[in-house]
Structure formats: structure tokens, C-alpha cells
Amino acid sequence: MKRKMKKFVSKNNAGFTMIEMLLSLSFLLIILALIPLLIKSIYVFKDNALDHTNYELIMFRKDLSEEIKDTNIVIDNAHHKMKFIHNGNSKEYTLLNAKIYKSINGKGNITLLNNVELFNIQQVNQNTFKVDITIRKGDNKIHEEIFI
Prior knowledge:
37% of the residues lie in helices and 39% in strands. It folds into 2 domains: 17-50; 53-147, no CATH class. The chain is an alpha+beta fold and 148 residues long. Strand 2 (81-86) and strand 3 form a beta hairpin. The strands form 2 sheets. The chain has a 5-stranded antiparallel β-sheet with strand order 1-2-3-4-5, covered by helices on one side. A 3-stranded antiparallel β-sheet has the order 6-7-8, with no helix packed on it.
């Protein structure tokens, strides 16, 4: 009878021990606990990557600072326009349909800023102008004051 029992009982015990099983389960739980944090950080990076508002504002400031040199400036707040005239060439910045457009010599439209709620120009003194811009960014608003 003992011989028959030995046939059925295998001596090859190549399975997991209890400690190995607990270690593998703990590693799995740690990895699963990190997945929601990774997904949340991916959404934050995605929102930042798709939002060009700050970059557009930097480029708009740079464009205005380059245009101010040796030009005559004509302000039309009623129509939300600012015009730079230099050597017979004109560059005009206009707020239309919540966007600020740039046109050169009355031709073409280059969109510089989107989701603009306010575009106001004031002359502070003889050589200084203040440009107030409010941009809607989701539920928030960004207000910029640019002195040129």
C-alpha cells in the first residue's frame, strides 16, 4: 500500500511558497496603487501641452515691443484697434470675435491671441502706452498689462 501512495505523491514541489506569493502580491498592489497617480499626471501634462495661452502672450509682447521702435501710433479704442505707422508701412492690431488679429498694410489677418475678452489701449505719456488684455482660460481669466 505504501508503494501505491508513493506513486501518487509527487516529490517535485516547484510551486510558490507563501512568502513568495505575498511578495509578488505586494509588488502588484504597489504598482496598482501608482496607476491613478500616473493617469492624473498625464492629464495635467496634457492640459499644459495643449494650452498655448502663455506662449501666445509672450509672442504678442515681443511683437508689440518690436513694432514700437520709430513709429507713429494711432489708437482707436471704439473699434479696439491700434495702428503702427513707419515709413509708409502700417501694422494694425484689432480685436474681433474674441481674437486679436494683426494685419500688415491692410492685408492679411494673422491671429495672435485667442479667447480675448478685453483689449484696451491707453496713452500714459508721450512715449508710453498701456495695453490691457484679459484672456479667458477655461474657468479662469488672465489679465495682462503691457507697457510699450
